[in-house]
Amino acid sequence: MLDAANREPHVANRAAPAASNRDSRLTIHGTILAFDFGERYLGVAVGDTVTRIAHPLETIDAEARAARFAAIAKLVTEWQPVRLVVGLPLSLDGEEHELTRRARRFARQLEGRFSLPVALADERLSSADAAARLREAGRGGRRDKDLVHPVAAQIILQAHLDESPSA
To answer: Hey, what domains does the chain have and what are their CATH numbers?
Structure first.
C-alpha cells in the first residue's frame, strides 16, 4: 500500500516483520499478483489470501513499457487481484540503488494504472533462492532460465503472505 505521507509503497521486511506490517493488507480476501521486477524480465506469481499459498505464473519478457503494461493488464483482467506486490531490490546491506528507484516507480505506476493497492516486499536473494530451488528440483541452467523469474516472484509473494496477519 502506498504510504500517504510520502507516496511510497509499504515495504515488508522478509527477515523480521515490523509491527507496521501488521496492517490490513489481507483483510480483503482475494487474489494477489506479485512481480519480481527487472529491467527486461518481470517474473509474475499468483496467490490468494485464503490458502495463503503462492504459485509461479509466468515471465513477461518486455523491456518496452507499453508492452510490459499490456501484458500486466491482461493478467489483471484475467486474475482480478485485490492487491499487487512488487519485489524491492536492495543491496545485501539494505541500501537502495538505481534498480530500487525503478522498482518504486514501477509500483507507483501499477497503482495508478490499475487502481489497486501495491505493497513493496524486500526481495534480497530471491533470485538466488529461486535458482537454488530449481537446481534442487533438477531444473535450472540456461534451458530453464525463464523459470527463475516467476519462482523469484513466488518467493516474494509467499514471504508477503507469511508476514501478513491472518485473514
So the answer is: 2-19+27-163 (3.30.420.140)
